[in-house]
Amino acid sequence: MNSIRKIKKILKGRPTIEGAGVHLKRAFGNSQVPQFDPFLMLDDFHSSNPADYLPGFPWHPHRGIETITYVQEGLVEHGDSMGHKGVIGAGDVQWMTAGSGIIHQEMPKESPTGTMWGFQFWANLPAAQKMMPPRYRDVKAADIPEVTLEGGVTVKVIAGMVGNVQGPVKDIVIDPEMLDISVPAGTVFRRPLPEGHTAFAYVLSGEGYFDECRDAYVHETTSAGWFDTERRCVCQPETVVLFEHTGDVVQATTTDAPVRFLLVSGRPIGEPVAWYGPIVMNTQEELRVAFEEYQNGTFIKHT
């Protein structure tokens, strides 16, 4: 019999400024390690004010992680130390494995719609793969399959498999699943997940219930206020739902409104995390070496 996962924690995105001055919401990050293992960070940049996003993320290094960029609206130009360059547009995904080291930049352009909206995840790499050669999975929106399920639920399959449909991002170390799911009003949606894999949902629009018992006080919640006297168990945009590891099914339920959310899961690594800025290793000594190499010009190992 399938066991529905319970909610471990609910978090709400907090405003922060990154890069050269990009205003965004951080859904989770350094202070949540290792709760989201193998995932390290999720940033949501969403603004109709060009001054909030045009400063971008100029040249900077990465080592020991994978960065996943998913754009909803707008355009992001990118380039790197290996000569790659291109544009990530609406609906496109870039899954970049930094591995042994890469220096790159990501620079949003003035959005054709006036709004820039996208997400960047960081996923950790195990010690055995931290120094692997860098690689890309550049996926255009047209190449991301969409599946319609019972009840009118639609799923864009970025990574993982839904039915017989395989997402275009595969052969990734942490065995991830990344789905963009839309559930109509008045619908119950269930998604099987591997036992023990870390899983979380990030709500993009609408609202839904991710807790079978619908009890706002059975899980930990972080919010802007220090004491929330009007807690609701319905989850709305810019909310992260982190599930317990036990159970093999995630459930989302809607009532009067639909909900759209990202469902992300992966195999935990269970190793020490040493993290400073854009580099994530296993020890402080490895961090020291990485930044020393960056300073003396020996950071890039593969070209």
From TrEMBL:
Cofactor requirements of the protein: Fe cation
Gene3D superfamilies, sorted: Jelly Rolls
Pirin C-terminal domain: residues covered: 178-299
Species for this entry: Geobacter pickeringii
Protein name: Pirin
Domain Pirin N-terminal span(s) in chain numbering: 22-122
Molecular function per GO: metal ion binding
Lineage: Bacteria, Pseudomonadati, Thermodesulfobacteriota, Desulfuromonadia, Geobacterales
Cofactor binding note of this UniProt entry: Binds 1 Fe cation per subunit.
Superkingdom: Bacteria
Family statement: Belongs to the pirin family.
Keywords for this protein: Iron, Metal-binding
Coiled coil: none
